[in-house]
Every structure is written in C-alpha cells, then in structure tokens.
Amino acid sequence: MRRFLVLFAAQAVLAQQPAFNLSALDPILERTLSLFTPGASLMITVEGQTVYRKTAGVFDTAKPVPIASASKWLAAATILTLVDDRTLSLDTRVSQYLPQFTQDKAAITLRQLLSHTSGLISDSPCLVSGSTAMARCVNEIAEEPLRFPAGSKFAYGNASLQVAGHLAERVTGKSWNTLFWERLGTPLKFTCTRLDGIGSLESPIVANGVVSCADDYTRFLQMIVGGGVYGDRRILSTASIAEMSADQTRGVEIAETLYSSFAQLDPQLPRLRYGLGVWRERVDPSSRALEISSQGAFGFSPWVDFQRNLTGVLAVESSQEAIMQAYLDIKDVVRRTVPAWPDRSMLTANGASFAIEPVAPGTIFSLFGPAIGPSSERTLRLDSATQVSTQLDGLRVLVGDRPAPLIYAGWGQISAVIPFEMEGRPSAVVQLEQNGVRGPLTLIAIATASPGIFTLTSNGRGQAAALNQDGSVNGPARPAARGSILILYATGLGPLQPTVATGSVPLSAAFSRIPVQVLIGGQQAEVLYAGVAPGSIAGVYQINARIPQAAPTGAEIPVILQAAAATSSALVTAAIR
Questions:
Q1: For residue 17, pLDDT beyond 70
Q2: Least confident of 102-106, 176-180, 237-241, 527-531
Q3: Which of 342, 357, 389 finishes a domain?
Q4: Which of 79, 93, 413, 435 is most exposed by smallest CB count within 10 Å?
Q5: 459 vs 569: CA distance, rounded Å
Q6: Per-position b or e across 355-371, b if 16+ CB within 10 A of its CB
Q7: pLDDT > 70: percent of the chain
C-alpha cells in the first residue's frame, strides 16, 4: 500500500495569505544593524507564504553570503536523497567504500558522520586551506586518531561531513558539486548558491563552504517543512525528514557543542541535541522535534518551526556571537505572534490523483501538515483477518462522527479511508485525535465520485500502476497490446455493490455502484470489471479495461477514468503497442 500514498500537494493553491503583524521585528533589525556588516535580511514564511521580508543596510534577500555551518543542513539533505533511493543506508559503514578507515574507524557509520558522533577529529588543516582535493583531504582525516570511540560522544565539527561527502562521491561516481545540483540545487531552483565559498568546485568544503542567500535557503526550508516536497516534486521522503529531525546523538555525552558559550542567554542552549545536519532547538515531551536549525559562524541563521509550518532565515555577514541575542529575540516575537499550526489549517488530498479536491465515500485520502504524525512510520494493521484498524499507536482520524480506517501515519502525513457512511453528505469535518485528545481539524467536501488512478511515481502523474493481461507491470519496457486487457488501480469511485463495511477487506467481488468509463488515448475502452481490488481494503478499486483497437500506441498514452461526471487526471499514462 505504501507505494500508493500521495506526496505533499502544493498548498499555495488552497491557502489564503496568512496575516500576522510582525512589525515588532523591525526594531530588532534596526537596533542590531551596527552588528551586521554591511547589513542584514530577514525572511519568514508561514504555510508557504511570505509573511515578513525586510532588509537593513545594503542587503536584500538575494544577496549571496557565506553561510558557514548552515552548509551542514544542505549537505545532510543531499546525502539523505541517496538513502531514500537506497544507494546508501544511514547504517552503512564508511569502510565499505573508503577502506582507508581501518581498525577502530572501520565501524563508523554514515549516521555517526552526519550526527557528529563518529569520534573523528573536529577539523583538519586541509579543511582550513580549502586547497586540498576531496579524496586527499579525507585520507588525511583518516590518518588522525579517533578522539573517542565511535558513537560514545557528541562533538560538533567539520571533518565528519567531509568524509560523508566523499562517501557519497565514491558510491555514486559523481562529484559532490554534481550530486548537490542534481539532488538539491536544480530541483529547488537555486540561483545565488555556490559551493566554492571556501575551497573550489573541485575541492569543496562540505560542512561550511557554501555561499547562499535568504531566497534560496528559504526554498530549501519550505521543502523541509513541506514534508520533503517542493512544488510538485518530492526531494526527500517523510522518513528522511523524520530521521533528520530525530535525536541522533542518542543521549551520549556532549563533548563539544556550538552553543557552549551562550548559556547566559539561554541555559538550555549548551544542552541542545543534534539530528542529521541540524540542531534540535525545541522538542515536545516525547522528544519529537518542534523546531530545528543550523546556524553558521558568520551569523547566517536558518530555522524551521514545525508547529507553525514556518520557515525563517536571518542572513548576515557578522558573527554568531554578535547576532545571537537578535536571533533569539526574533524567534521569541515570531512564536508570540504566529499561532501554532493546529489552530489554523490542515491540507487534504486524494490519495491517488495528488490533487486537492472533493473526496468520495471510500476514497483513500491523505492529510498533510507539520508534525501531525508519528516521527517513525506506521502502516495499517488488522483488527481481524478482514478489518483494517482505525487506530495506529493511539492516533485516530475522525471523519464526521466516524473513525476512518488508517493506512499510514508518518512525519507530516496520515493516510486513511473516507467512511462509506459519508455518502449523501455535502461535507464533513476531519479531526485528528491522539490518545483521546482531539487536535487539529479541517473541513472537506464530499463528492459522489472523485476518481484518481494510482501511479508508479506516487505523485498522481506519469506511468499508471497498471498490470498487463499476462500479469506483468505495464511500462515502456512491457507495453500492452491493443485489444488486450489493461488492469488499473484507482480510488474515489464511490460506494460498492453489494454494500461492504468501511475498512473491510472483502473476500468476494464487490462492484462500483457508479458506472465507470475508461478512455485510453482518447478512445473509449470496454470496461470488463470495476470494483474492489482483490485482497485490498475497500477503497482500492481495480478496473479491467480492454484497450481499443483504435487506441494510439506509444510509451505515454493518456489514461482517464470517468465516474459521475468526475474525471481523473489527464497526466496519467500507460504504454500501448
């Protein structure tokens, strides 16, 4: 079922411009202008919308500045894309690809590199000069003795990120610069960001060598707070966002921290724990991160507030010491002005079409928002052999007065099924409940039908999740012949006949009560079956359609479902020969 879950939809088409009076931030910038050389910019977004953008001095939000250790967040995200596609694992041993890490260094893992628990030296002369090739610099780091056994302490530094970057190079056969732009910079449309602030494109300093600006970094943060999606493209999985935000130091001794000298400003700062490339500035009682950040030595200060679906970037050319009080004051004003996210909104989308639209009874749908799900993924469980549970670890989704069967719950995403009992209602309130405590809610429109075809890309477009008549997966390498049967999987086709219970896994055939039509390349196909998919929860529909002899051929032929005057996306395709 996991492959059918949708991605985070672009919320700007739905959300209204949030209105918050953040004018109290103005005097903070003015008061501290003398500390900034030659100025500063501050950019804050809420729910994807810019709510504050101010500059001081000669700055603007497109001005490139050295971001120092804010580079670590970008580096960790780039490497986590390799974890998502299973090129690497967080528990991959460095020595598997970098054999120069021997003896007590052989067991160091990628997780420990990204969380500064590897025991490697904090810095190296090759990182200061920026003139040493990546491979040679990593060799120099490997020759230094461990400061402590891997995994036994947390000590903030730069060397471990250099090793992680070279590990990524070795496993992919690509340079760090190429990987960064392929995985992060290009999809996020960076314009001012460069990797040669220290070093060069051939010899980059991974942990602190990036130059960027508030505009570019804000797009990166919007991807993070958006559950890994920017626009219509998934950059990171929700699982990677959760790993990034989790406490990866695992309670070990804090031997060295960026915040050791700031106890007089906030006694909690020296105690901050670390995730993967980020500081966990605020956490809830269960240790789930509410706010994460990655400040740089020159004062560049980005952060994400998951509670408020908020991003912030303070861009300066100064020092962390000079701007730290201003940074804390800014965030205090923001927290007092912008209410926590559950008090405002929640986004819903069809579970197959990747569209924000009305949903029909029986539709698999997803809720999206910051910190609404558990930090680790949970998938459906059965209360009996044929009934999917409406609870996952104390979490429930209430649709109207009915608990919805839960299919998936993860960081920022919960997927469930609209109860069939919602038939005939124009709308319903959807509300989350955790351990009996009611949380955020939203209003959704109920439609007779809202067809959506599941896709292999899990984003509502591209190759349909379809089988050919011989049971092979349809695609350019295995196209379906005209006149053969194409098996599609969909949701949103409404009630079934005979009636089945919400959340059940029917043991016998149940048919869509609403007539279903299939268009393949604009040609109407003969529908041989439209009903519950065998072995699946009621809400996953199977449609067997005979491909018309007049259908066009090719690798990307549009496939459209029609039911009760509603139409599925025209961006779903199948391969026909």
A1: no
A2: 237-241
A3: 342
A4: 435
A5: 11
A6: bbbbbbbbbbbbbbbbb
A7: 92
Residues 6+ apart with CB under 8 A from 38: 57, 58, 59, 317
Statement to judge: residues 335 and 460 lie in one domain: no
User: Worst-scoring range by mean pLDDT, 35-39, 116-120, 256-260?
Assistant: 35-39
Shared domain for 125 and 28, answered yes or no, is yes
Mark which of 342, 372, 399 sits at the end of a domain. 342
Q: How far apart are CA 390 and CA 395, in angstroms?
A: 8
In the numeric block, the tokens 């009903």 are attached to: 531
SS3 285: coil
Is the same domain home to 66 and 109?
Answer: yes
Residue-wise pLDDT tens digits, 98-110: 999 999 999 999 9
Whole-number Å distance between alpha carbons of 237 and 5: 12
Q: Which domain holds residue 420?
A: 347-445
| 4 located within any domain | no
What distance in Å separates the CA atoms of residue 57 and residue 552, rounded to the nearest whole number? 61
Structure tokens of 420? Answer: 């069939």
Given a contact cutoff of 8 angstroms between Cβ atoms, the answer to whether 363 and 392 are in contact is: no
Q: Considering its fold, how many domains does the chain have in total?
A: 3
For 181-185, what is the mean pLDDT?
96
Same-domain pairing of 418 and 494: no
DSSP type of residue 460: S
C-alpha to C-alpha distances, 567 to 31, 336, 337, nearest whole angstrom:
57, 44, 42
Q: Give me the amino acid identity at 389.
A: S
Q: Report if residue 523 sits inside a domain.
A: yes
- Asked whether the beta carbons of 375 and 288 are under 8 A apart, the reply is yes
Report pTM.
0.67
| Burial bucket for residue 507 (CB in 10 Å: 0-12, 13-18, 19+) | exposed
Structure tokens that stand for 277 in this block: 């490339």
Same domain, 384 and 456: no
Q: Is 161 helix (H, G, I), strand (E, B) or coil?
A: helix
Alpha carbon separation from 10 to 177, 304, 308, 346 (Å, rounded): 28, 18, 17, 13
In angstroms, the Cα distances linking 347 to 344, 357, 443 are 11, 10, 9
Residue 2 within any structural domain of the chain:
no
Give the separation between CA 358 and CA 452, rounded to whole angstroms: 12
- Residues 560 and 475 grouped into a single domain: yes
Q: What is the mean pLDDT of residues 211-219?
A: 97
In terms of C-beta distances under 8 Å and separation of at least 24 residues, what long-range contacts does 420-427 make, across chains too?
Answer: 420/361, 420/362, 420/495, 420/496, 420/499, 420/500, 420/501, 420/502, 420/538, 421/361, 421/502, 422/361, 422/446, 423/361, 423/494, 423/495, 425/400
